[in-house]
Design a protein that fits this description.
- This protein is of the alpha/beta class.
- Helix content is 31%, strand content 25%.
- It is built from 15 helices and 18 strands.
- Strands 1, 3, 5, 6, 9, 10, 11, 12, 13 and 14 form a 10-stranded mixed beta sheet that branches. Strands 15-16-17-18 form a 4-stranded parallel beta sheet, with helices on one face. Strands 2-4 form a two-stranded parallel ribbon.
- The chain is globular and about 65 Å long.
- The chain starts with a strand and ends with a helix.
- The structure holds iron/sulfur cluster.
- The site of iron/sulfur cluster (SF4) has 14 residues, from strand 17.
Length: 443
Amino acid sequence: MPEKEKVYLGRCDTYNLTELKRCFEEGLDLLGVHPEGRMTIKPNCVLAHPKAAPHAYTRPEFLDALLTVLETRGKPQGPIRIVERSGARISTKRQFKRAGYYTLRKKHAVKLEPMENAELVKVKLKNAKLHDEITVAKSLVDTDFLIYTPKFKFNILVNAITGALKLNIGILDDEERMMFHDFRLDQKIVDLYEVGKPHLIAVDAITAGHGGSQLTSQPYPLGLVIMGTNSLAVDVVSNAVIGLDAREVGHLVETHERGYGPIDLSDIELVGEELEFFQERAKDFDRGFVRVDKFKTSMNILIGDGYADGDHGYCMGGCHGITLDALLMAKDRNPHNPMKARSDVTLVIGKYEGDVTAKTVIFVGDCSEVKGTLKAKRTVRVKGCPPTHRDLLVALALDAGLYPELLRMSITIPQIPYMLPKFLTRIHRPQAWKTNMELLKHW
Ligand code: SF4
């Protein structure tokens, strides 16, 4: 019988360096892993911000302890590279700075590589369904030992805990990241596994993120480190911690069906602490997922099927999911925010089968339309399949008075060349000025 994939569960209640080192050493021993050669770490650092996104990224203390163990127990050849790509044209270097990653250079031989500044290579995919080729940082493929350190947080775009498999979205640049980021997101994630197949995964589940957008969510103390060598096995166990069966998660099922690992807990050997202990700790974990048209907001939200080349229903990784994400971000700033949005605005997502009467109708995405009679003073379209988070957040602020957590001065300053023309075309509208006031209020 083939050996079962092992997954380690370690208890670590705080980001204390000694405790973390103990976990990593125990994990490596129980998994029987011996890191050596040229090493690359891919953290989760799409967004780091002390107020807006304090629980969205792998903490520097976690990396500090891991680097210490790799240097003392492993045999690294040359500096250990840390590679990441932020999204939405946000500077990765800025995220590294905010996350405190540059301080790691004082203690360790590390090289920080924001993907925008890294040497890139094109990689042809042989077994993928959607992507023929992707562009990634050279140090992700030209390495002997690849380590993924995802942050444990719930992501409504896949309706699951995002661990090692979804982390691969962050190996792509902005353009490739948004390709097939719609009803095909599950397949896209699995395509990327051909390149992003780590030798070791260490999940930062000490303070998890729950109950909101995956970027701006609330903290949940889990006190857990999860380690393994198979991405699917680690993600199956991560979801089991919050009581979610991997067979209910599209991209995990797809990964299993393509033969990349086990999907049943019975096919995984758990080592370290008991799973039940962490399941008990996670009993109040809030997934935050609702169908977007059921979300409580003063705006009217109408949905239909998302179509690209056929009937594909709910576009969880696309417009339906991204709009829910934006609503959650507004709630994460202030629970009352979604009810303060303009009630004369209607959002239409996908092809809505019915009549619509509203002062302003915002069409989300390229395919959205009203199949019945449309009566509106003003219509706005947020273009894209799907639109980027940035385009949607700006439109919701300027046209619907919805202010998400990310809409704050310190994050949007680099976006001024993008936002200014949008503001100028609405300069006669009070909503545009209100948005500026809102920006000034939140640094
Ligand atoms: S434009 Fe349509 S098909 Fe594309 S992501 Fe949006 S809802 Fe889905």
